[in-house]
Specification:
This protein is an alpha/beta fold. It folds into two domains: 133 residues, Cobalt-precorrin-4 Transmethylase, domain 1; 108 residues, Tetrapyrrole methylase, C-terminal domain (Methyltransferase, Cobalt-precorrin-4 Transmethylase, Domain 2). 36% of the residues lie in helices and 19% in strands. The strands form two sheets. A five-stranded parallel beta sheet has the order 3-2-4-1-5, sandwiched between helices. A five-stranded mixed beta sheet has the order 6-7-10-8-9, sandwiched between helices. A hairpin with a 7-residue loop joins strand 8 and strand 9. Helix 3 packs across helix 4. The longest helix is centred in the last third of the chain and has 23 residues. It starts with a strand and ends with a helix.
């Protein structure tokens, strides 16, 4: 079996954030197998790459991967395991025919991605199969960039956690670390804001919804949600966060750009 499965991180949503290597791999693979979370829905990862990659000659499969909680070292829901096995079987069939397969996944495959579960499932069935991971830009990096908020500096400690699990674990992490990235916050948003308020961290938190997408939304004053929070939402809690708002940062950047432009213009006329 000479063909290869490429598990490709496609970034958080902006097609321009797809890496050059990711685009090159997606262009050369004749088969795309892309995950989606509901039968009636479409694959978000696939919608991103369609804006950059010519799909006319490709064989495309959108497969259902149920959105269920997964606890490491605990039993995994049967429907989830069945979805992994079905995807693995389809991919192995294509690889057996000598066709390279790309499996696009949001953000970076190393961070809470379906890609590694698929990788383990395939390797359990066919240990010798060729698999390569192509890193992508993670959502938290996009959130940091769009809000002008560093994730960690100097000796600060960083934690990245799914917010949907134990309140006690979340509470302890919020107390211990300097910066906390809370992912998958949509179902527990109100509980989280209560906890952040209790710990005096509400004014050190910022929510980014659908980072890198056209309808991205940034919320700096975290109170009870006025409208449903989208699944693609992240909260950055930064204890050493400056009191400056994102608008202050962007205003400063704009002023610096104007000054640089004026300086360049003056030098050109000297």
């Amino acid at each position: 079996m000479n063909a290869t499965l490429f598990i490709v991180g496609v970034g958080p949503g902006d097609p321009d954030l797809l890496t050059l290597k990711g685009a090159k791999i997606l262009e050369k693979c004749p088969v795309i197998v892309s995950p989606k979370s509901s039968l009636k829905g479409t694959s978000t990862a696939l919608s991103i790459i369609k804006k950059k990659i010519d799909m006319k000659e490709k064989e495309v499969h959108e497969l259902l991967f149920p959105m269920k909680k997964i606890y490491i070292n605990s039993d995994i829901d049967n429907t989830v395991q069945e979805a992994w096995r079905n995807a693995a079987s389809l991919i192995l069939n294509h690889l057996g025919e000598g066709k390279d397969v790309a499996f696009p996944t949001l953000g970076d495959p190393a961070i809470y991605s379906t890609g590694y579960y698929l990788f383990e499932t395939i390797r359990n069935i066919s240990p010798g199969v060729s698999v390569q991971f192509i890193p992508g830009i993670p959502a938290m990096s996009c959130c940091s960039a769009t809000t002008c908020t560093p994730i960690c500096l100097g000796d600060e400690m960083l934690a990245v956690i799914p917010a949907t699990f134990s309140d006690q674990r979340t509470r302890q992490i919020l107390k211990t670390f300097d910066t906390i990235i809370l992912m998958k916050v949509h179902r527990v948003y109100d509980q989280l804001t209560e906890l952040l308020n209790e710990l005096g961290l509400l004014d050190r938190s910022i929510l980014i919804e659908k980072a890198g997408m056209e309808d991205e939304r940034i919320v700096e004053n975290l109170t009870k949600s006025e409208k449903p929070i989208h699944y693609f939402s992240t909260i950055i809690v930064r204890k050493n966060r400056s009191k400056l708002t994102r608008d202050d940062y962007l205003h400063a950047i704009a002023l610096a750009s104007i000054e640089d432009g004026n300086s360049t213009h003056s030098q050109m006329h000297k």
